[in-house]
Amino acid sequence: MSEPTASPQQAASPEPAASPPDSTRTGPGRVLIAVYALFALSASARAAVQIATKFSHAPVAYLLSALAAVIYILATVTFAVGSPAARRIAVLSCSVELVGVLAVGTWSLADRATFPDATVWSGYGSGYGFVPLVLPVLGLLWLRRWSKRARIQPAIVAPAGDADEADEAARSKSGLRAQVPFGRY
User: Fold this and answer.
1) CA dihedral 133, 135, 136, 139 (to 10 degrees)
2) Per-residue DSSP letter, 19
């Protein structure tokens, strides 16, 4: 019996047919970036106007709005960059955002005198349709899903050494391709 040989089309493509994305900027990541950018812009504008015009009225609320704006900007940038270091920072910013929404949401309901004006996170983001409560959860889920996909992607490494290159050249001239077991490159 003869061993099956790989066709030229199969041998020419060392990558799997469905490879995971190489960045958080793909798929749902694009939507997250857009929503975070929108919230960064709206929270920044809101905080700037409130701090510039009536800071003494509710300083805690306005400073918390400014903090929310900074966190939204950081999340937008780190999701857009998508590098491993940026993803770690994105996890941190989404985590801080979630804790902030929960803490400020609870605080704003328990002590209404401290919050005469609403912040982005007041009432768990009720003024923004509770998106500030859901957004960090979605961001963390996307980062978790992406990191799982990145871990299962096989690393493709070029063969090292002249002997391996010579063997590969000989096989390609003869039209035969060796079947390399998964994980042995």
Assistant:
1) 160
2) P
Residue 27 token pair:
């798929």
Residue whose entry in the numeric block shows the structure tokens 């009720």 = 126
As a whole number of angstroms, the distance between CA 60 and CA 115 comes to: 7
Give the three-class secondary structure for 180.
Answer: coil
From CA 136, how far away is CA 125, in angstroms rounded? 12
Which residue has tokens 């077991």?
181
10 CB-near residues (< 8 Å, 6+ apart): 177
Mean pLDDT of successive 10-residue stretches along the chain, which has 185 residues: 52 45 72 95 94 93 94 96 91 97 95 88 93 96 78 53 53 51 47
The single-letter code of the amino acid at 84 is P
Q: Which of 131, 132, 124 shows the shortest CA–CA distance to 103?
A: 124
Would the CA dihedral through 127, 78, 20, 147 be positive or negative?
negative
CA pseudo-torsion sign 130, 132, 137, 142: positive
**Token pair for 43:** 């929270």
Side chain identity at 102, as an amino acid letter?
Answer: L
**Region for 121 from its dihedrals, namely left if φ exceeds 0, alpha if ψ lies in -120 to 50, beta otherwise:** alpha
- pTM as predicted: 0.68
One-letter amino acid for residue 74 of the chain: L
pLDDT at 170: 52
